[in-house]
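Feature request disguised as a bug report, sorry. It would help if multi-protein outputs had a clear separator. Right now it looks like this:
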Amino acid sequence: MRKMPRMQSVPSKLKKTAVLWENDRIRPYIPESQAYSRKEVINMLQRHGFVFLKPDIGGGGKGVVKLTPAKRGVICQTLNGRRELPVQRAFKWIEQEIISGRNYMAQQGIQMAKVDERNVDFRVHLQKPQNDWLITGFCAKLAPPGGLVTNHCRGGTPLDASEVIKRISHSVGKKEKTLKKEIYAVSKEIAKTLNKRFTGLKELGIDLTVDENGKIWIFEVNTAPVIKMFECLKDKTAYQQINQIRYQMSAES
């Protein structure tokens, strides 16, 4: 693996989301995201049906909780299982056992498009070796059966993005080329927008999904993205290209 070039890292999800929210071209792609509070979570559950809680700083799906209303309270699903608790007991458990004093965010749940009845999302990898942002990697991530997240380190399966888009395009009501073009366009707009505020950025990994109606949603933007998923694809072209540009940027820094 090539050495990562020296570049700026912006770990806070809420901070990056706030910057992107200022751009009216990106705003329609951003799920509702709020700093964690009991009141915000209850309101979001009423508006969206289910909500994800995520650490403001962190990755790999660690610490993620899915909350879904139930007859007797709320179902709390984590990487380790699920439990149904009365609402106030659920909040107490989350705050003591999961959040434990850390900054957390609540994010609108999205009904993701599926492949073989499993959730699927995408990673767009961008690099800036010179003056322009280049899309150097694009892959899909298929959640394990019943899985909470699609992360490769949590059992997700990396797949060729073009093949997945081809499979889901008809069911979500958008043409394959239209969907891919829109994903690329919003990804580049995100890179340029963040780079205006954080001028040291050189590499980004954007996690996004397409919902059951063909709408694109941006889940997260990683400023120090791992690329193991690209190494696991049958076609290693993207992995090799990303590493080649990393080597070029680290030699120049």
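(second protein starts here, but nothing in the output says so)
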Amino acid sequence: MTYQEEKLFFDQQMQCTITGHDGVIKETDANIFSWKVSTSIYDAHPFFEIIKGFLEIFEKEETTYNFPCIHLEEGKLEKICDVTIKINTKEVVILLFDYSSKYHELNKIAQQKNESVLRAKELELKNKFLIDKEKFKNSFIANINHEIRTPLTSILGFIEVLQKTNLNFEQEELARIIKRQSLHLNSLIEDMVDISKIESGKIKIVEERFLFVNLMEGFQETYSKLAEDRGLAFETYIDPNIQEYLIGDRTRVFQIINNVLNNAFKFTEEGKVSLSVTKNFQRTNKLSVSFKIEDTGLGIHEEDLENIFDRFTRFNRDKQISGTGLGLAIVKDLVDLLNGEIKVTSEPDKGTTFDIKLPFKFEISKAKPEKKKKKYSLPESKKKFRILVVEDEESTQFLIMKVLIDHGSFFVDVAMNGEQAISYMERRNYDLVLMDLELSKIDGYKATHMIRKNYGDKAIAEVPIIGFTARATEAERDKCLRSGMDDFIAKPFEQEDLLYKIVKQIAKKAAS
């Protein structure tokens, strides 16, 4: 076979198709399949639906995906192709390599005798793709979580500073709106992170003894204020026969009830929302508690009820209401994790009722008083306390400096990275270090380790260090403490919480 003949044969085994980001075919040589210009690639074969997912996560740099041994059909024509998909800012290039004859030659006997092996391999490839996709998604959510929390820290922090200044009525209202929308954005991020944790099995149910009545009264207080602002009635009933202290996962119970109450208020414009908490049954040291949340809101159509707990699903047909559609999906997943039950009944324009049953345990003993947050005060000093802020975000630097300087008890120095921080500490004594974890050159973990291990001078080696980061997870907190830090605060943070932790560590150091 001559070179030209070989080239012609090879060209006939390839097909190049170019589409726009909308999936419409702009060019194709139709060597293998007779796809037409101006038709949609998504109609050509279901396999190409995956392009939509790739376009959603595309980030400007050209990205290539390779898929071996893909079965494609067009009418009676069947081909086994290796598929390469290249995505750039202007178009999507799809390259097909027809290896049907080679695959059939090499696998003819194997296909006859080992069809089960091939099916297993196909499932393995699909599973690997799903696993890789899941890893990418979780990584993507974690990064988005970090990148959004950082500017949110500054937005919420400066709004809090602004609200303490002399504002007129209109300015106060604008500040409240900005803060409310920022908190809403933060809650949406937390929803996505929670879903990711649930899917990856990273949420652990913790059984701890907590003041159940206190938790329920917290809902009464919070949502009574919201009801008053919205012109709604909020009715509550808490069964006095429920033990004051219960054993269970307080955090997850709070998430469940809070999400459902929040959903009820979101879809109720007039009338009332009610929360009824009753004892379902009790056996020895175990009991089941029923939570009934009713509203007189928009309601849900009967055909939509079976899908109400699906992710990214919203049923506000006649009204645009903000949200991701993740709240109730999280509720259902958490109820299942707690071995509980949840049911919903609803009627359009009349309201919705959620019935939730959750299991708890309790101790047959006298209740102990709940621990209160210990108060700390700065040691008496004729001079101000010096704080080193290690942070590379200019807006966060300014926010922390503003908070600490306005307090009146602190001098503040700022270092851009761990290397600069260590250099400052070698020249000046500090009473406390606020250490961001995501730093260039030397990150917060390594800088802390060096401070703790490399210096004989106690003024350096034993300085209190508080880590802070936008990666607000228990794992991150534990990593901070293991690296030698004394405490941890997540972004975005409340200014009172930040000051409390600073005063606490300085007071503890002075008392040691």
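Even a blank line would do. Unrelated, but nice: The chain has four domains: 3-113, 133-199, 208-361, 385-511.
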